[in-house]
Amino acid sequence: MNTTLRRDADEIICSSIQAVLPDKAVCRALEDFQPGGGRVLLVAAGKAAWQMAYAAVQALGRVDGGVVVTKYGHVKGEIPGVACYEAGHPVPDANGFAATQKALELVQGLTGLEKVGKGTVKFLGQDITNATIRDRSKHGMSHIPEDRHKHGLVLDYTLEQNLVLQRYWQPEFQKGGFIRADKVREYSDRLIKQYDVRSGQGSSTIVRSMSGGNQQKAIIAREIDKDPTLLVAVQPTRGLDVGAIEYIHKQLVAQRDKGKAVLLVSLELDEVMDVSDRILVMYEGEIVGELDPKKVTVEELGLYMAGAKRDKVAKEA
Fold first, then answer.
1. DSSP calls for 233-271
2. Would you state the pLDDT for residue 205?
3. Which residues contact 53 (CB under 8 A, 6 or more apart)?
4. How far out from the chain centre does Cα 86 lie?
5. pTM for this structure?
6. pLDDT tens for residues 10-41?
């Protein structure tokens, strides 16, 4: 294939990838990195992910997907971060990058969205492996899901109905099995004002008609107002404008400052490195490094994620 045709082919593939990725993809063809020569079309969701994958290719001659996770447990006053990237698939399937979705199974098992295949999940010393989502919520876990439309909101419900979804069964909001509409409205109006959730008709607004930023603010208001012990935030700023991103980051940091456990999961490596206080890297189910986001580079992080580098301390952990 001549240079012009190859470049055109790469552009077509990259356009296809960007159509299915949640974030803008960065594509670049790399020469002679495969054993015995050949080409690799390196694809990553974002510039930082591309830099990490590029470093892995240079070190190993291959492109792997990876996941960065925190160690189990919580240190007061910290936000540990979870980062995911996927690269090396010239043409992704219709669901985007499969390895990225597999990485998020960790969160799904933790929050109860999926059953755990083996092992146990313990929270505050209690085995919650088979606990329902409501039981986890009652025990002090809040969850800002990756997909606000699929798992965070009922789009055809009103804003007040969505804000009370996690608490409607409490005596404050129901009596004898009937919802106390006045109390729900009072609670909703308070959260709208406190968290600056903007909507056309206030509490009675249908959530589907709201902007993405205000939908996300509503979820954050609902989950944080429960005063959780653990806040799991997955892709909390996905698809939002700069102002909404800054607001959400401030809310996460405020929870950290209150001594809450905050687990941040993001495909945006810049977000993980900017907001998190520490990063642990897992490769093939094993912790291979504990990193300071203020000191580590994305290239070095990529080597850990690819399994090309590991700390002695991690081996002993």
1. EESTTTT--HHHHHHHHHHHHHHHHTT-EEEEEES-HHH
2. 96
3. 42, 44, 63, 85, 87, 88, 302
4. 14
5. 0.70
6. 565 555 545 544 455 555 555 444 444 444 45
**Amino acid in the structure at residue 317:** A
Does residue 43 come out as left (phi exceeding 0), alpha (psi in the -120 to 50 range) or beta? beta
Residue 89: count of CB within 10 angstroms of its CB: 16
Please enumerate in sequence order all residues whose Cβ is within 8 A of that of 256, keeping only pairs 6 or more positions apart, or say none: 77, 78, 79, 262, 277
What is the DSSP annotation of 99-161?
A: HHHHHTHHHHHHHTSS--SSS--EETTEE-TT--HHHHHHTTEEEE-S-IIIII--TTSBHHH
Both structure tokens of 111: 């929050």
Give me the numbers of helices (H) and strands (E) for the chain, helices first please. 12, 13
Which H helix or E strand runs over 87?
A: none
Q: How many CB atoms lie within 10 A of CB 262?
A: 26
Residues 6+ apart with CB under 8 A from 153: 162, 207, 215, 218, 219
The bridge status of strand 286-291 relative to strand 278-283 is antiparallel
Q: How far apart are CA 54 and CA 26, in angstroms?
A: 11
The helix (H) or strand (E) run that includes residue 191 is helix 181-194
